[in-house]
Automatic annotation (TrEMBL), chain A:
UniProt keyword annotations, A-Z: Oxidoreductase
Record organism: candidate division WOR-1 bacterium RIFOXYC2_FULL_46_14
Entry's Gene Ontology molecular function annotations: iron-sulfur cluster binding; oxidoreductase activity
NADH:ubiquinone oxidoreductase-like 20kDa subunit domain span: 16-152
Family annotation (PANTHER family): COENZYME F420-REDUCING HYDROGENASE, GAMMA SUBUNIT, HYDROGENASE SMALL SUBUNIT
Superkingdom per UniProt: Bacteria
Highest classification ranks of the organism: Bacteria, Bacillati, Saganbacteria
This protein's name: Cytochrome B
Presence of keyword Metal-binding: no
UniProtKB/TrEMBL annotation, chain B:
Upper classification of the organism: Bacteria, Bacillati, Saganbacteria
Protein name: Ni/Fe hydrogenase subunit beta
Protein source organism: candidate division WOR-1 bacterium RIFOXYC2_FULL_46_14
Assigned keywords, A-Z: Iron, Iron-sulfur, Metal-binding
GO molecular function: iron-sulfur cluster binding; metal ion binding
Annotated 4Fe-4S ferredoxin-type domain residues: 232-263, 311-341
Database matches in Pfam families: Fer4_22
Stored InterPro entries: 4Fe4S_Fe-S-bd, 4Fe4S_Fe_S_CS
Amino acid sequence: MTRTKPKVAFFDFACCEGCQLQVANMGELLLDVLGLIEVVEFREVMSEKGPEKIDVAVVEGSITDKHAIERIKKIRDRAKVLIAYGSCATIGGVNGMKNNFKLDDIRKEVYGDRFNYFDTVETKAVHQVVKVDYFVNGCPVYIPEFVKVLKAALQGIPYEVPDHAVCVECKLNENVCMYDRGVACMGPVTRAGCNSWCINNGNICYGCRGMVSNPNENGAMDIIKKYNIPMDMVINKMNMYNKCREIDKREQKKR
Amino acid sequence: MLYNLSQYVVLKKEDFNGFISDLVKEQKVVAPVAKGCGQFSFEEVKSGSEISIDYIPTILPPKKYFMPRDENIATYDLSNGEDMEPVVEYEKMLLFGVHTCDLAGIQCLNMVFSERPRDLNYLIRKNQITIIGYECNFYCDRFASCRLVHNHSPNGGYDLFFTDVGDRFMIHVNTNTGEELVAKSNLLRKAGEKDFEDLQRVREAKNREFAKNEIPIEHEKIPELFDRAYNSKVWEDLDKRCVACGNCTNVCPSCYCFNMIDEPNLDLKTGRRYRQWDSCQNESFAKVAGGESFRKERGARQRHRYYRKFKYPIAKFSRFFCTGCGRCSRTCMACINLKETLNSLIKEQGMENPEAGKV
């Protein structure tokens, strides 16, 4: 008995396409993944376009103009399951920094006196526009987690993004704490799931996986004070990936 | 204290590296190694020169060898029904340089996992691990509270136990495995009267160093303190400060909670069941179906952690599960300090006794 493989298509919006590159660079594991799915559309690696109905849409990038809003809605209609992957798609990512400024100022900066020809909207994560079934956070995505989510999606079971701090995984990896090295790290407020990838390799956590759902902001302030870290530096670090979090907060208030 | 001299052997310090090299030839040897920034971890070593013998408690306790952070429990195959095969993963190894606080931590885990139904994975692995303890003659730092919980001196739980008595180590031989190690080595000699006197001298000096409890309360009064302090304001203070990073429980030598996870292979038919360290400080730990959480507030989670060290295990195992190692305080992002918490509780309940534990 042969089973038809699920049709999977990859799409991108405002992003660097680095997460697609991560998937393409998966190595030997990619062959196993391809044994499981049929890739019907993937701009980074093939020219073909997919059929009207697809089983799984894997979406990279954030939504930043009207055209993108229409396109993501169409993709949502075509797909049974939608996976947002990478920081841009899951939390808005670095594109969210646009929301620090007035939209017209942004357009003038980029397009000069022709700015009127180019529309732009507040940067949004994919779930802030259409329903998202699975999230693979990270900039770029952590391939072991991507594979885990893909398996969950194909089995039709939920995947919960860990809701505890990166510190948990970092401590289990027995790294010397970045704060003890005199460097400010976003680990204490950032969602785990990456196996503290950056810190294992001597870097800090930039908060690319989004914040834990219930951060203790007062407690975080104490830490910032204890290590004598300038407040505006922390806010900038926070907003580098997490500016679109404000849209979620706004929506929560409306409810 | 009565010493039985026949149970002691002596290793000259100049022979230390040779002793370790002999052990390394026989099996995997794990010992404290410097990680920088005044921190240490247990790592595999190939020679004595890699070992930092004067170390303060490692980032993670040796529990990582007894209950690995990710441990395979079973494999499954759904091709024909629901086939499951249990898996036990273990490795023969020798742990060198374990402080008395961490020996106590291993004893706690032994009690927990020996309860029925016994945890065979743990017990099989534990039997493959040889332990050489190492005595602290001085306090490691201001965070330790080993005197309070009577873990500053050896209480068993090792095969051999080293005490630095100047130019040599006095070694207590505690088990058959320990005797076998001694028999194999040609660097050890039997202890004599002079060695015994030096050991006594070191222990007397140590008694002066660890003269009384670090916290002004008698050991046996602690359960009463916790009986009275459940609704204390101290927990509200911790609620404001804790960021729930989970560091305190992950580094604790006696925390053993784990989560069970089924992970399919890419064929989606076969897969593995594994367990992974979990923490009562994590947001999702006490969450149940429907999104309810039994311990939503961080203060309640912190309180739970303290009660799991000082109250609940007394009823169940008749011992404190705080080993006094000080790791939770050393590692806390928010400077939550176990000694300060106990001090605040004692003050609030009017149970201060400045001379507590004095010998």
